[in-house]
Amino acid sequence: MTTLSLQLYTLRDQLAADRDATLAALATMGLDEVEPFGIENFDWLPQALAEHGLKAGSAHAGVTKNPEGVLAAASALGVKTVFLPSTDRDAWNTADGIRGAAAGLNAQVDRFAGAGVALGYHNHDFEFRAPDVNGVPAYDFFVSLLDERVVLEVDTYWAVAGGRSVTGLFDSYGERITHLHVKDGPLEPSRSDAINVVLGEGRMDIPPILDASPNRTWVLEFDLAGADPIDEVRRSIEYLKAAR
Predict the structure, then answer these.
(1) How far from 155 is each of 52, 67, 162, CA to CA, in Å?
(2) What does the pLDDT look like over 151-207, one tens digit per residue?
(3) From CA 147, how far away is CA 5, in angstroms rounded?
(4) How far apart are CA 182 and CA 177, in angstroms?
(5) Chain centroid to CA 32
(6) Rounded to whole angstroms, how far apart are CA atoms 35 and 105?
(7) How many Å apart are CA 172 and CA 165, to the nearest integer?
(8) What structural domains does the chain harbor?
């Protein structure tokens, strides 16, 4: 059965205000796991998650800036896949910049693989809006440069906002796409202040994406939630439960 997760960045403000109550609420939602962010920066994560019966299967972290710190945190959490959540947007304006972004990830693959942790990349929309490289879309050029062991977490919302078909990405990369960020909203560029909405209430056509991904991990995320983030997360998790 499909694994359901939540990117904890969704509830960053709630975690900062009342960590215990926020994690307690998540523990009632039937999640299979959660996806923490910046794991090298929060030494309270392993104990706090364990106290609420939550486990972390994947994570976002600064793998190219502090690989040893990230690996130590991944070990403490039991995380098996760590995604670089973004790269320098300006680097995507040139072929050499994209080569540098790929090289930064490739340089860490052996270190992470040796620790039993898969390394991956998570997109925004700018990778799909960047100029082509010799007729090849920038994202595809980037992926072609990555070590074959680097997996992909497709942020479905930002892919569509960037003009790319998510199911088309599935056709291109198949099982290399191991995780999806599932979100909904107005499909405006990522530098806007657009608020995400409960799954099924925005402009995303979500069902075909989920139907094509029974063996991928579905990670709910709100970049910016509305007035009641806990309730919006709960309702969105119910949407995903009904779809799997």
Answers:
(1) 27, 23, 11
(2) 999 999 999 999 999 999 999 999 999 999 999 999 988 777 789 999 999 999 999
(3) 26
(4) 13
(5) 16
(6) 20
(7) 11
(8) 4-243 (3.20.20.150)
